TrEMBL record:
InterPro entries (alphabetical): Cell_Envelope_Assoc, DUF218, Rossmann-like_a/b/a_fold
Species, as recorded: Microbispora amethystogenes
Residue intervals of the DUF218 domain: 44-148
PANTHER family, alphabetized: DUF218 DOMAIN-CONTAINING PROTEIN (PTHR30336:SF20), INNER MEMBRANE PROTEIN, PROBABLE PERMEASE (PTHR30336)
CDD domains in UniProt: YdcF-like
Name by which UniProt lists this protein: DUF218 domain-containing protein
């Protein structure tokens, strides 16, 4: 971990407030399927493979095309690279489905659902594996679009500092945290997701970080 990757002391309390808010603190239980949500973070595939090997689900769907920020890292698409990484970690290729078209979180679920239906696979429960700060938005989106399944959220278990160090760009992480926080309320208002609790301390931390200039991921 490098010193430059650490969260500045002046911002730490607010960043930790948002970091904790987006963690749903779910206990992962055996489920019908694991759904790995595409992003720039290969840790999603790493943890999906780990949970598979723990026996938490017999099948993984990796879902995701590309965003402008992931094309250079995952030129064949996020889900394709996730599968390749999981296979390298020991997951049998036959136990992974790839959904290569989704370009946002809503499409992650609608396209995954359609893919499973095409394969004749019925599911009643799923573990959603995402970036740490995407857990709450993934949960709220899934419950809007696929309300009949039981979902649990999971992410590679890293501390805030370890996660920032793994990404190597503290500003990027803070901007993403701020953007996902805004999306919790904005997407609920637009009908894209179910409403979530939004404590005053979360809103205050969000507002201070926006005022500090972390606005690049706002909608």
């Amino acid at each position: 971990m490098t010193a430059t990757a650490l969260v500045p002391d002046a911002l730490r309390a607010d960043v930790e407030t948002l970091w904790d808010y987006h963690n749903m603190h779910h206990v992962v239980r055996p489920s019908d399927i694991g759904i790995g949500l595409g992003s720039h973070d290969l840790g999603v595939a790493t943890y999906a493979a780990d949970l598979y090997q723990q026996g938490m689900f017999p099948l993984i769907v990796f879902t995701g095309a590309n965003a402008p920020t992931t094309v250079s890292r995952f030129p064949r698409g996020e889900a394709v690279h996730y599968k390749e990484h999981a296979v390298e970690l020991g997951v049998p290729a036959d136990d992974i489905l790839v959904e290569p078209r989704a370009t946002n979180t809503g499409e992650n679920f609608t396209c995954t659902r359609a893919l499973l239906e095409q394969h004749g696979i019925a599911v009643k429960s799923a573990v959603l594996i995402s970036r740490p700060y995407q857990q709450r938005r993934a949960y709220a989106t899934c419950k809007r679009l696929w309300p009949e399944i039981e979902v649990r959220c999971a992410s590679l278990p890293l501390s805030l500092d370890d996660y920032v160090a793994s990404i190597g760009d503290v500003d990027r992480v803070i901007n993403m945290l701020v953007g996902d926080t805004q999306r919790i309320t904005e997407y609920a208002q637009k009908g894209f997701a179910v409403e979530q609790p939004y404590p005053d301390e979360v809103d205050a931390a969000f507002q201070r970080l926006v005022a500090a200039g972390f606005t690049s991921r706002l909608v």
